[in-house]
Specification:
By secondary structure, this protein is α+β, with helices and mostly antiparallel strands. The chain has six helices and seven strands, in the order H-E-H-H-E-E-H-E-E-H-H-E-E.
Length: 182
């Protein structure tokens, strides 16, 4: 009975995360708590994270306000960034997902302890079809799409800071909606 109860709890948790992640029952544009999307994305990618023995650190600012956003699109961004971070740590490591208020922005950082991105590649990673992955493992579109979703659809900013053992993708989203967005 204990195993059934435990399994039922895990399935319920996964179904709730899938429902939140897919945003199927929600408006395309709404006020959201970015932490909800990050948490559901971590649940959706937990099999990959666990396969590689990666430690996850959630450093969430619990005082963040909701922000106007397209949550399904942001979930795609979180998926791309977290999946890339997991890929960068083939031998395990630490994935840190951090949120903080920074002036008029919500800052989301996806950090990994992988090998890092060489400086000469950092200038190209947001270009369409550029990939560091072997043929068949990456299309080179994930970061390009993520960049466009953040900058064009949300009026935000996406950048990378990388050194061996510390790569940080930083997403800045405005606390209030810019006049030309929505």
């Amino acid at each position: 009975m204990g195993q059934i109860e435990d399994s039922t709890g895990r399935i319920s948790h996964l179904v709730a995360a899938a429902k939140q992640y897919s945003q199927m029952d929600r408006a395309a544009h709404q006020e959201i708590d970015v932490r909800d999307g990050l948490k559901s994305t971590l649940v959706m990618l937990s099999h990959k994270i666990n396969e590689r023995g990666i430690n996850v650190v959630k450093d969430f600012d619990h005082s963040l306000p909701t922000i106007p956003a397209h949550p399904a699109e942001l979930n795609q961004v979180w998926t791309n960034l977290i999946d890339n971070a997991v890929y960068a740590m083939a031998e395990g490591g630490t994935l840190t997902v951090r949120t903080v208020r920074e002036d008029g922005w919500v800052l989301v950082e996806i950090c990994d302890t992988g090998a890092g991105i060489p400086v000469e590649m950092q200038q190209k990673i947001f270009e369409p079809f550029f990939t560091t992955k072997p043929v068949g493992e990456g299309t080179g579109l994930g970061l390009d799409i993520s960049y466009r979703v953040i900058t064009q659809r949300h009026g935000g900013d996406l950048r990378v800071v990388s050194h061996p053992g510390d790569t940080r993708f930083q997403v800045r989203l405005p606390l209030t909606e810019p006049p030309s967005f929505g």
